[in-house]
Amino acid sequence: MDINRVLLTWAFLAFLISPNLVQGIGVNWGTQASQNLQPSTIVQMLKDNKIDQVKLFDSDHWTVKFFAGTGIEVMLGIPNNQLAKLANDYDEAKDWVKENVTKHLYDGGVKIKYVAVGNEPFLKSYNGSNLKTTFPALKNIQKALDEAGIGDKIKVTIPQNADVYESGSNTPSAGNFRSDIKDNMIQILKFFKENNSPFLVNIYPFLSLYQNPDFPMEFAFFDGGAKPVQDKGISYSNMFDANLDTLVWSLRKVGIQKMKIIVGEIGWPTEGHIKANVKLAQKFYDGFFKKMATNKGTPLYPGDIDYYLFSLTDENQKSIAPGDFERHWGVFRYDGQPKFPVDFTDCTSLNYPSSCNKLGSLQANISYAFNMYFQMQNQDVEACNFQGLAKIVKTNASTPECLFPLALQSAGTRLWMQTGTSILAGLLVLLALF
Q: Which residues does the UniProt record annotate as the domain X8 (predicted)?
């Protein structure tokens, strides 16, 4: 196999990359693909991009064990098809916690933070099929965690689609939980309050645009180009703020004045619809990351907001019933190839006292920064000519202390994101300063 490693080092674009945007990033990792990257590769991708929280859709033991000792916070998932047995048999819940949680909690083990019970179980399209099993399953899992002595550290939650609440006037203050699930939601919210669990909600501005031809496109983004929505003295310039504050109003109307809210999924697809493309995805993420970097939150939910991007990689075996775009939510393609540069590509390894802080020269630091940019530009040499400041060489600039990110590309379609000093046979291309 013809193997090419492309390594780029560069200079003076570091100022374009804000280190503030790499703090506390979470990401969803789904595995509905014909070819999945190895968990060890996924873990390295997360670490390389300073992503320190991951949300899974199951609890596969072989996958979860790769997060041991990484410091990455893990949210385990329980699929909807397991809710009935966990709801009807407490012993099943105890066994689940034993096999999927406590088994990983040894010294240096997996940093499990949450257990997600179900996935959007009250979605309208499910026609109430999970209404009788979700809350009992939630209670049994929490009871099993408590019995194992870890219920104060690991919290249960339920990832909900934003369709669990609605607003008749399309203003946040008119928000309320759907009438068909309101009693269920009140039970669950009371339980969350008693157990200090967060409310997990999936917010998708793209879906609002996709489902409603009259939805103002610019309202899906964060650059202030949309006509603001006025509501009780508050001006909303984007759908994210308005949607999350609709949830806040819905919570208030059932007596919940304060509860931690986590955005369980947020993202933008890159294929499968005229509005699903790389250009708009990059625009959405750039605006979202800049907003998150301000730590201002929304008008009714100020401060930091925990969030999980959807998703890390494409999944080419997902159902396309929601739309052809459903297989193309990844920031990376299914093989690990980045689709576009995003602001969590960073230079924090250059900061004191990080591993690359002592490269020894300004040129070396600049080379490291150029390489990070090049990788997220999909290794496009034309995008990285830097007005003649760089050249391609055949030398790996990594040191024992500082690893320059590499991209390994086969003659086929798979591209593996690697970091390390081990070099396979083949051509190594390095863009460095003259």
A: 328-404
Decide if 56 contacts 76 (C-beta within 8 A): yes
Q: Please count the residues of the chain.
A: 434
Cα–Cα distance for residue pair 396/209, rounded to 1 Å:
45
Q: Which CATH class is domain 20-327?
A: alpha beta
Rg (CA), the chain: 23
- Intervals of CATH 3.20.20.80 along the chain: 20-327
Residues 69-96: tens digit of each pLDDT: 999 999 999 999 999 999 999 999 999 9
Give the three-class secondary structure for 176: strand
For residues 403 and 409, what is the distance between their CA atoms, to the nearest angstrom? 18
Best CA proximity match to 350, nearest among 6, 19, 44: 19
DSSP 30: -
Q: What's the one-letter identity of residue 342?
A: V
Work out the angle between the directed axes of helices 134-147 and 182-195 (0-180°, nearest 10): 10
3-state secondary structure of 234: strand
Tens of pLDDT, residue by residue over 128-164, are: 999 999 999 999 999 999 999 999 999 999 999 999 9
pTM, two decimal places: 0.77
